[in-house]
């Protein structure tokens, strides 16, 4: 398991230095190289929390690929440089990749480009100014063209290819890997379905419950699995702005009308002081007063 955030994570960069135009996934590629050198036969990438928007170009470079401009010179790292990408040479890829299964465990289903793409949706939280969103999106479009020529197929519109600033596309195109919902990978590993099957009530949650929650995040997966098992589920969020789409997918609409529902705005002290009161009121509303 290679966590992209471990080498290319947003938490590693101070807010004033965040710059997806220059940030690279090269360090993540080095972690994959180390795994291959140690004999790994399956590599699962965890794309969440990246500081990058380079379409996985840095990742591929660390693995031996060459990203070149029209003159045949290597491009510098970062998402902005992809606007000059002209050719991707995959001849030097690590030989271990021919014997390994590569998967990206995506917690989002965003495509690479457009209003729902990597740059528009996740770029601002990584430090992309509004004025640069289209610039970096156009650079990723150029990169998608290069990847399509190198791999023989264009997969930029597939769900999940926008994960981690476009790493998802590099995985399925250049590395011939696959994208799997992160929830699915973890649920399978821990046997979650069997654990939920005997539950009277499941409580799940997220720091912020909003429209992104239903696009592959863990709480949405738990809700769906509980629904298939007819097990009641409650979603708790530290902050919430569900939006029309999020509310529309909920299997228990009453959750939107719980008395005492309050946006704690990310204040841990408020969560602690009011947790018991809100929990008790929620139980009463849902008919579990004696629980």
Can you put this structure into words, describing what you see?
- With 291 residues, the chain is an alpha/beta fold.
- The chain folds into two domains: 2-183, Glycerate kinase, domain 2, CATH 3.90.1510; 192-286, no CATH class.
- The chain is 40% helix and 14% strand.
- It is built from eleven helices and eight strands.
- The chain has helices spanning 4-8, 26-37, 57-62, 118-126, 133-151, 163-173, 182-190, 192-197, 218-229, 243-249, 268-286, and strands at residues 2-3, 42-46, 66-68, 87-89, 101-106, 178-181, 202-210, 233-241.
- The protein has a four-stranded parallel beta sheet.
- Helix 4 (118-126) packs across helix 5, helix 4 (118-126) packs across helix 6 and helix 5 (133-151) packs parallel to helix 6.
- Residues 244-262 have low confidence and may be disordered.
Short description:
By secondary structure, the chain is an alpha/beta fold. The chain has helices spanning about 5-10, 25-35, 55-60, 120-125, 135-150, 165-175, 180-190, 190-195, 220-230, 245-250, 270-285; strands at about 1-5, 40-45, 65-70, 85-90, 100-105, 180, 200-210, 235-240. The chain is built from 11 helices and 8 strands.
Side-by-side strand order of the widest sheet: 1-2-5-6
Can you tell me the CATH superfamily of the largest domain? Glycerate kinase, domain 2
How many E-type strands? 8
Strand content: 5-15%
Q: Give the integer mean of the pLDDT values.
A: 86
Helix content: 25-40%
CATH class value of the largest domain = Alpha Beta
**CA-CA gap between termini:** 39 Å
Shape: globular
Q: What Rg, in angstroms, do the CA atoms define? A: 21 Å
CATH architecture of the largest domain: Alpha-Beta Complex
> Structural class given helices, strands, pairing?
alpha/beta
The CATH topology of the largest domain is given as Glycerate kinase, domain 2
Please describe the biggest sheet, giving its number of strands, its sense, and whether it closes into a barrel. Answer: 4 strands, parallel
Return the domain count.
Answer: 2
Tell me the number of helical segments per DSSP (H or I, 4 or more residues long): 11
Uncertain segments of ≥5 residues (pLDDT<50)? 244-262
Order of SSEs: EHHEHEEEHHHEHHEHEHH
Oligomer: single chain
């Amino acid at each position: 398991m290679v966590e992209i955030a471990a080498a290319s994570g947003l938490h590693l960069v101070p807010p004033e230095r965040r710059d997806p135009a220059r940030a690279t996934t090269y360090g993540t590629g080095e972690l994959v190289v180390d795994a291959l050198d140690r004999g790994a036969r399956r590599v699962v990438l965890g794309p969440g929390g990246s500081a990058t928007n380079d379409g996985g170009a840095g990742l591929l470079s660390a693995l031996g690929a060459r990203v070149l401009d029209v003159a045949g010179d290597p491009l510098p790292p970062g998402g902005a440089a992809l606007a000059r990408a002209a050719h991707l040479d995959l001849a030097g890829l690590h030989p271990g990749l021919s014997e390994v299964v590569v998967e990206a465990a995506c917690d989002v289903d965003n495509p690479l480009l457009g209003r729902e793409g990597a740059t528009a949706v996740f770029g601002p939280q990584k430090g992309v100014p509004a004025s640069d969103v289209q610039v970096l999106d156009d650079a990723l479009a150029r990169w998608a063209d290069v990847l399509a020529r190198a791999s023989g197929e264009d997969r930029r519109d597939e769900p999940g290819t926008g994960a981690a600033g476009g790493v998802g596309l590099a995985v399925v195109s250049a590395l011939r890997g696959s994208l799997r919902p992160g929830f699915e990978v973890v649920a399978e590993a821990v046997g979650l379905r069997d654990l939920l099957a005997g539950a009277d009530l499941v409580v799940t949650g997220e720091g912020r419950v909003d429209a992104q929650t239903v696009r592959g995040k863990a709480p949405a997966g738990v809700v769906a699995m509980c629904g298939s098992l007819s097990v009641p589920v409650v979603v708790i969020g530290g902050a919430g702005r569900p939006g029309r789409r999020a509310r529309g997918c909920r299997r228990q609409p009453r959750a939107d009308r719980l008395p005492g529902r309050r946006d704690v705005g990310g204040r841990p002290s408020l969560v602690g002081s009011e947790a018991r009161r809100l929990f008790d009121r929620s139980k009463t509303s849902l008919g579990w007063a004696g629980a």
